[in-house]
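Task: complex structure prediction.
Instruction: return structure tokens for all chains below.
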Amino acid sequence: MSDVVEKTLTALPGLLSLDSQTGAGKLSSSTKLGNLIRSITELTSKHEEEKLIQRELAAIKEQVSSPNTTMRQMREAMVRSVYCEMLGYEADCSYIHAIKLAQQGTGLDKRVGYLAVSLFLNENHELLLLLVNTVLKDLQSTNLIEVCMALTVVSQMFPKDMIPAILPLVEDKLTHPKEMVRRKAVLALYKFSLVAPTQVQHIHRRFRKALCDKDPGVMAASLHIYLQMIKESPEGYRDLAGSFVTILRQVVGGKLPVEFNYHSVPAPWLQIQLLRILALLGKDDQSTSELMYDVLDESLRRAEINHNITYAILFECVKAIYTIHPRADLLEKAAKCIGNFVLSPKINLKYLGLKALTYVVQQDANLALQHQMTIIECLDHSDLIIKRETLELLFRITNTQNVRVIVEKMLGFLRGCQDDYTIIDLLAKVAELAEKYAPDNHWFIETMNCVLSLGGTLMPPDIPSNFLRLLAEGSDSEEDDRQLRMFAVNSYVSLLNTNPTNLPQQYLQVISWVLGEYSHLIDDLSASLVIDLLVRLLDQPGLTSDTRSWVLSAVAKLSAGGSGAVGSEGPGPVQRVAQQHSSSLDTQLRQQALELQLLSQDPELHARVLPRGASWAGLEVDSSLSFLDGFVSEALAKGAAPYKPPHQRQEELRQEKALSLEPYGLSLPLSLSSCSIADRHSPTLLSISSGLSGHSTELSHRAGSGSLRLDGVRRVWGKDGYLAQREGPEEPSVPQETSIPAPPLSPQEGGALSPPSAEPSKEERDKQQLASSLFQGLSSHNSTCLMGKPEAPASQRFRKKHTTLGSTSSSSGSSHSGRDPSNHFLYSALSEESPASPLMLTQSSRAPPIRTETNGTHTQEEMPVPPAANGVAEVDDPEAPPSVMTANELPAPGVARWSSLMGGMEVVPLCPQTPPPIDSAQSSGEEDVTPEPHRELRDCPLTSDPIPPELRDLPRSEVTPLSSDQRLCVSCCRVQREEALVLLLLLSGASGPALLDVSLELQCHPLKVASLRGNAVERLPAQGVSVCWYTLLMEEPHTHVMVSGSVTYREEAGHTHTLDISTKLSLADFLRPLPLSTEEYGRLWLSISQDVKQNLQLLHPDTDPLHSSLTLLRDKLHLHIVDIIGSEGILACQLLKGAVCLLHCRVHGGALAVWLRSAVAGLPDCLLYHCQRVLHEH
Amino acid sequence: MIKAILIFNNHGKPRLSKFYEHYTEDTEQQIIRETFHLVSKRDENVCNFLEGGILIGGSDNKLIYRHYATLYFVFCVDSSESELGILDLIQVFVETLDKCFENVCELDLIFHVDKVHYILGEMVMGGMVLETNMNEIITQVDAQNKLEKSETFIFQSPRQDR
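Output:
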């Protein structure tokens, strides 16, 4: 009440002053905006508009800074500023006033202020700090609307560093009686978790509560969070799959209040979210997938009403079905659905159908065959987007047999395309297909020429460089290479003979390089002819100096044999060119010209510098840069610091975190020798493999598992595409027209399509011919796929059943049968006891006596939640929806429905996926507790194995003490799970009194914390052991990562202590053996390019040195020995589930020559460092 | 996530722009121009989805738009949104505007940019879809509009006290 009075009083002066000029103020202000808009629309030029707006902004500035401006005028000025900003003019003079308005205003003023702030500023803007206090105040306001406004602005932008300041307040709002506030709070928290993930880690538990909220709106909001988190790590949330399935089943079954219907479809957006979540959860996990088959089936069945939004649901359904572990009957239904999409006359649906086809075609190429005629029609569609999508689909089904046709289609599209983004995308695709599936040399060169000439300025630089590399490195067959190069030379000579203009620069560069390098291969082509052609290029206007330099070096290569010598008939073309450029302003060109002058006159020198036809592969690169030895030793003698490799430097830097007092070393030798030989190429083979092998690792995973997914799906189409279908009498036919769509629910037989007419028209025949060529070789054959081996399923973690807790176990037993009436009653019973949330129930029912202690430092979570958080009378809003009720009232219909809807899932917080091994005496509300192991632990905490049982079988390090004092000892153990490193921190109490509020915090940067458990313990009893799990991921390779942090705890007497801990994690902790066959290894080796070579020390140089060295490396670094042949050995490993690193070791002159390759830069370097150390230390 | 919501008319004049990610003022204007350029080229009988404006981000983002009389409503979203779902969300948005302004027309959007923003704020919060039920949105907006009345109430009562 006093609050209201206060507000009234503060508002008074402004309002009173407003009184005197209400009429006038209102009128003038409304016309001001009107005038502005009217005069803007009258303007004709951009320049005039600019002038007008500048004038307007000046007027606004004057108005807002005047002390006499009323709130109302201020509001109006803000709206005008917003308008100017929208037109792209900065109204920065109003920024501070917008903040002021939000701060000082009430009601409407505040609303305008907040709106203006959220439109003007961004989260990095310095003025935003001024808003923090206002937000804090409004979050605590009793006025619902103010709270909502604050939450909205917070989720739009908030300074990252200030999040901790408001986090508790926002968290509090999760238990707010109004659903709207809870909903906004959930989204605000979601935003925080995106902006500053580390700061909200501890509230993940609260998200579960939001998911269990009795209001479907709040639950729906929490799905945003879950979608994001599950996308990041599906493993952590598999236990929730059952709950999501239950929710979806009830939504689909129409159990939600009618308000959630949209065009009589129950909560479609909610369904879409849920289906996406399920797809993510079921991916690569059979048992989870099995949970959802029924509900997916039901969704498919229910989504019949012919409205746009039901198609959205169907589309998600189909995607989910194809993402999760396959089931034959569902796949068949989904395939039919896709058919309906593709054949639909509605263009949006056709687009989505093509998208779906693209998505599934790697698993089920037959589906594309079924719709081949439609696809061909889409190729000629008037809508570019549809066309592009079709090409994308074709790109996915390309193989050696249909590559010609498909590439031709793509090039055709490219010729008529205007959109830069599409062009870049398609260029890369064509180049990729050409490299992969080229049927012959001639075609390859032609295609690449097309790509190069079409690319123009948009050409991504890696396309020409890949092409040249391919030409240079060649394949296994020498004759083939020669052919290829000759084709290239011939095509360029004939191209230049036509005197083309406007060729793209990069194309010219390629041409000149090829001519310079390979024109000698063709006998009847004289060098002087080629030189003439090249020199003519130099005369073209608009040639960049870059291209000029390429041409010059080509000329230099060709100018051998004294062709450039000053002959009797005057200076030759080479001399002329050299002369011409020797005075160029570009220093590089000038240098080249001078070199050219010398080289062309001295055939001997030329032969030495530019030997003709020398193969690239034979080119010896002195990677140790030994020719610099003299320079280095000289520098060393002068007192320069010796060179250290980067990883060593990095480590030393880390060790000396303090200020470095040493003077800087000489940097010159460092920079010289650290330039790595980046272009040690990996030869990319021309046509490596046919079939649908993946185009990227992700795709190949898909393709690899595709073989699995096909069982049970009817194969109705033959291997040879369209034509073959006529052979079988029962075989289905092809759609003739899109206008004959399949009946929505027609059976699958016959491909749901009409039979082909007896005598197809010519046009039809053309199309069919095209179809047969497009879909050639397309069938469900399995492509060999290197990385395609299905990922080993992550360690299965089933829920453990708690038999000790009566009510819990009964509800967990029925967790999958949401419609069980007993559930309903269970829920009511639960809500009577503790309506706030089911989670609180666990706390209260199991709270040990220690809870009665009251301490000033109790954490937020322990604060008793008001028993009827949802029962607070709705004073603010008389129209409170019926879903708000006190716990003891009879549930209103909506609530009853909802509670039954939620009935299946309130067990969620009660069943942790794995019981964290924390002493049962702890009454922590955050941790669920398993009784048995703890009793054991309490008796003899140090003799028994402190490692949680589910981790005991995994490889792990010894338990090493990190830090300790009289009361607490912290030790750690690194457990190597396949997909992550689990860093277990064991907190063991001494024999003194129990410790309270033990909390542990680690800075793991640059590692990623995938999950975290047990980092806060309310009470650690004497000699008790608590285990904290950090599941860590290494995404970028590092040799070492220092992980440091601190443990804080409180004695019962009240003193708080801090214990600093730190430990070093090495790359080896994150390496996992990669089982490969020699063949796979070979292919992989060729496909990756980052490499490092070094000679290492050998072990036992006398007795089988290779074997013992490799075994040691294997044991210490978790490598997999693929094969040992003679004096060579190959090994493979993987950085967790990510980057692969291959090692090739050879005994050579008493040393171990190691050659490492990986797709990830830095990994070979880091691994090499560890190999070196392992061998050295031994 | 929704990255941006743009409304402009057939001539490319912006009528509302709301970005849920931070871009500089210049980039925002460029995005509006580019989007208009992309969208206005499209015929009436083509699909409502567009991929690949270079500015607003790579292949993950797409534009979903609807064209009503003189106005284009464009949502720029990433891959975590359903295309058809957003298409219907635009419909809900427009229907809500229609109800709030009673036969909404371009002029309403011009003169009441702030109100349009409030309505949008109840539908989409920080780039996330908050509410899709038209009646609920209108209820929330109305509740806020009542502030005006409460303000006059505060304004009057002290005077009566005197």
